[in-house]
Amino acid sequence: MSMKRENSLVFWLFLAPVLVAFTVVIVIPFFLGVAYSFTNWTSSAKADNALQFVGLQNYLSSFKDPAFAHSFGITIFYTVLNMVFINLVAFSLALLVTSKVRLRKIYRVGFFVPNLIGGLILGYIWQFLFNNAVPALGRLVPLFSFLTQAENLILAKNTSAIMALVIVGTWQYAGYIMMIYIAAIENVPVELHEAAMIDGASPLQRLKAITLPMAAQAFTVTMFLTLVQSFKQFDVNVSLTSGGPSTMFQGKPILGTELLALNIYNTAFLSNKLAEGQARAVVFFLVLAIISLIQVSINKKKELEL
Fold first, then answer.
1. Which of 43, 171, 304, 305 sits at a 20 to 30 Å CA gap from 265?
2. Does residue 24 belong to any structural domain of this protein?
3. Within a domain: residue 43?
4. Which CATH number covers residue 81?
5. 19 occurs within a structural domain
6. What pTM did the predictor assign?
7. Within 10 A of 120 (CB to CB), how many other CB atoms are there?
8. Model pLDDT for residues 44-64, shown as the tens digit of each residue
C-alpha cells in the first residue's frame, strides 16, 4: 500500500466516528423532520398508526397564525439589537484588554466567565435581579422610585422585556466574542502602529486606518456567530420571560416576547401539534440559512473594500 493511500485510509478512519455521529444525530433527523412536516403527526396520531399526508397544510396554518408572525418579527428585532450590542461591547472590551491597562489578563478571564454559565441558570439569575434587585434600588435611590411600581418592572412590558433579553444575551456572549477580537487585534503587526505613531496618527485614526481593516475577517466570523446565536435563542427566553408578558396582535392574545425557537417548542409540545411545529422549524432553518448566507456575503465584500 502506497504512503498516499495509507494516509488517506488513516484520515477517513479518524473522521468516520464524527461522520457517523453527525449523520445519525443531524442529517437523518433533519430529513425525517421534513417528511413529518407534511403529515398530521401528533403524539396520538403516531401511537394509533394514523399518520396521514396533509401536504402544505401545516405550513399554511403556521403562516396564518398571528403568534408565529409576531414571533418572526420580534425575533428579527431582537437579533438586530443583540448583534449590535454584543459586537460593540465585545470589541470595546477587546480594545481594553489589549491595551496597557493593569490587570488586563484578569479582566479577560472575568469578562469571559459569564459565557460558562448555562442559559437557563443565567435567565433565572437575571429574573431575580430584574424583579427584586432593581426595585430594591428604586427604594434606596429616590430618583429611581418609579421602578418599585409593579407596572414599571422591566419584565412587565414587552419592550423592556426584549431589552432585558438583549442585556442578558450581551452579558453572556460578549466575553466569548471578545476572545475572537483579541486574536484579531493582537495579530495586527506592531510595526504598522509604530509607523503611524511616528507620523502623528491619533489612537482613533490608528483604530480606523489600521485595526479595523486588519480585523475585517474577525468581524465576518463574529457577525455570523452572533446572528445564529441570537436567532435561535431559546434557553434564556424560557427562564427569563417564558415568552411573556401577553400582548394583542392581529386581534389575538399572544405571548409578547416569545422568540421563534420558543414558539416552535410551544407549538410542538404544549399544543401537541408536532407536525406543525416541525413545519415551523423547517421554515426557521431556511430563513436562518438564507439570512446567514447574505450576511457572510456582505461581510466578505466589505473585507475587500477595507
1. 171
2. no
3. no
4. 1.10.3720.10
5. no
6. 0.91
7. 14
8. 765 556 788 999 999 999 999
